[in-house]
Design a protein that fits this description.
The structure holds two protein chains of two kinds. Chain A contains one helix and ten strands. Chain A is mainly beta. The radius of gyration of chain A is 15 Å and the shape is globular. The relative contact order of chain B is 0.20. Classes of the chains: A mainly beta, B alpha/beta. Strand 2 of chain A pairs parallel with strand 5 of chain B.
Chain lengths: 139, 387
């Protein structure tokens, strides 16, 4: 996925520990990660130190960076900066073809977003070497 | 009733919906005083305590047991969000049956509105400069709000089942009608479906009037055994069944956006009581948002999954309907001080004693309380019955 660097990040910043850091480091390289269990095949997101299905150690897996809107909302009131200055904006649950869901913003979408809208991921660096995924309609 | 059957004997509310002079601790204290006076039990008889709150941090039960002077043999600080008190009923009922204690006090108190304003629903999960950790790292940077989380549940229900904004609005209209009968309710003027749809959109598809109020307020109830209840002031209310469960905590982890843990806990609750949804005369459901009620209605078995919208549109939840909802005016119109689950139990007791005044449901013998905590995450269902 495309990586946007050098943006002035105003939003809450993730403070990952050593175990959680690979997800954000991968995003900064343009790779979207989720987890797969080598023992039972279960897939999951957010990343954890344990498979929620069988209890084994999950492994990182790379997603395609495509997804569809499972459900969404258009937030029109949020009292907290910087979000209050960005209203309205779309928060969605994105269903990945790999079988997991991620929350994210759908940007560059005007009023074309709906359940089922096809999306592609891009990443925005929030500090050097660490990024978060965002989504926009697949063109 | 067997001697050790758990019953609820005393209930009390602290001042609401706006009580700027009361601290959180004072809400707990006032509610306890009123619950004791209500049933005539002496404070020294309390030997069990359940408490959770948004004020005292993780150790709220310890802090409040000290403040109130509760010398407990049994204590429970289970925190599942707004449904905590339904879990407390489940746990206290088992403790009373086992003989771990004889009289359990449950309290909640909050000065949420006076202390923090109306920031709960739209304050977000962190703003500029915040460092977020754990699961919040995958939600807070996207500007998720509490209302937005429930809005995604409503959107999915609409997509899968054709549920309409008018269906959700009907829930708010019915609860407001009951609020008109409660002199203390925050909002009492009647509203129409059109009023709900015309109110400001907070997070599509939820309008302002799809959302609960933010208020101050606290409550208390006292549970004891049927035997101990005999010489008390009020007719006891029986705990016929209580069960709970969890499908997720964070909204992003909700496995099915149209189904809550009530889909499992409600059948378990009915089975304990040997009853079915058709036996229920009145419901007290967590109404943080209109969609909360709709989801719980389906999961508790009052209609099939997906049919909540048309079911509600038939007017069953209204005053005079077959399943009156939130007869105190609910969180939607009367009182929501952060965690509302305790008020569900208190209002059900009032109904089953026949003490609900103009809001009394005629011949109410069985009430179902369904508490929801978090984001339809932790659900506790409790069936109460007239003795």
């Amino acid at each position: 996925m495309e990586v946007v660097r050098g943006s002035e990040w105003q939003r809450p910043k993730p403070g990952p520990d050593a175990f959680e850091r690979p997800f954000f480091e991968a995003a900064a390289r343009g790779e979207l990660l989720y987890q797969r269990c080598p023992k039972c095949g279960h897939v999951q997101f957010y990343p954890r130190a344990v498979c929620t299905a069988c209890g084994a150690d999950p492994e990182w897996a790379q997603a395609s960076g495509r997804g569809t809107v499972h459900t969404y909302t258009i937030v029109r009131q949020n009292g907290m900066p910087p979000f209050k200055d960005e209203l309205p904006y779309v928060v969605a649950m994105v269903e990945l073809p790999e079988g997991v869901r991620m929350m994210g913003n759908v940007t560059d979408c005007a009023d074309e977003v709906g359940v089922g809208t096809a999306l592609e991921a891009y990443a925005v660096e929030f500090e050097p070497g660490l990024a978060l995924p965002f989504w926009r309609p697949l063109r | 009733m067997s001697a050790r059957e758990p019953v609820i004997v005393g209930v009390g509310l602290s001042d609401y919906p706006v009580a700027p002079r009361l601290s959180t601790a004072q809400h707990h204290a006032q509610a306890m005083q009123r619950a004791l006076a209500n049933c005539g039990l002496q404070k020294r008889a309390l030997d069990g305590y359940c408490c959770v709150g948004m004020g005292g941090g993780a150790a709220e039960a310890m802090v409040m047991a000290e403040y109130l002077g509760i010398d407990h043999r049994y204590v429970d600080s289970t925190m599942t969000g707004g449904s905590s008190f339904e879990f407390h009923v489940q746990h206290a009922a088992a403790a009373l049956r086992q003989g771990l204690c004889e009289a359990v006090l449950v309290t909640y108190g909050s000065n949420f509105l006076s202390a923090r304003g109306r920031t709960l629903g739209t304050g977000g999960f962190g703003g500029r400069g915040a460092r977020v950790h754990g699961p919040d790292m995958y939600q807070a940077p996207y500007g998720l709000s509490l209302v937005g989380a429930y809005a995604m549940v409503a959107r999915r229900h609409m997509h899968e089942f054709g549920t309409k904004p008018e269906h959700l609005a009907e829930i708010a209209v019915g609860v407001r009608e009951y609020a008109g009968l409660n002199p203390n309710a925050m909002y009492r003027e009647p509203i129409t479906v059109q009023d709900v749809l015309a109110s400001r959109m907070i997070a599509d598809p939820l309008h302002k009037l799809d959302c609960c109020v933010v208020s101050d307020g606290g409550g208390a109830f006292i549970m004891t055994t049927a035997e101990r209840a005999r010489d008390l002031r009020q007719p006891p209310v029986r705990v016929l069944g209580a069960a709970g469960g969890q499908t997720h905590w964070n909204i992003s982890q909700m496995p099915d956006f149209t189904r809550s843990a009530a889909a499992r806990s409600a059948p378990e609750t009915f089975a304990q009581a040997g009853l079915t949804p058709a036996d229920v005369d009145v419901i007290q459901f967590y109404d943080s948002f209109t969609i909360t009620v709709l989801t719980l209605l389906e999961d508790c078995g009052f209609c099939a999954k997906g049919e909540g919208g048309p079911f509600v549109a038939e007017g069953h939840l209204r005053r005079g309907g077959k399943l009156p909802l939130n007869t105190d005016g609910g969180g939607l119109s009367s009182c929501h001080s952060g965690m509302r689950g305790i008020f569900l139990i208190i209002e059900a007791v009032r109904q089953l004693r026949g003490q609900a005044g103009p809001a009394q449901v005629p011949d109410a013998e069985v009430a179902l309380c369904a508490g929801s905590g978090g984001f339809l995450s932790g659900i506790g269902t409790v069936l109460l019955g007239k003795a």
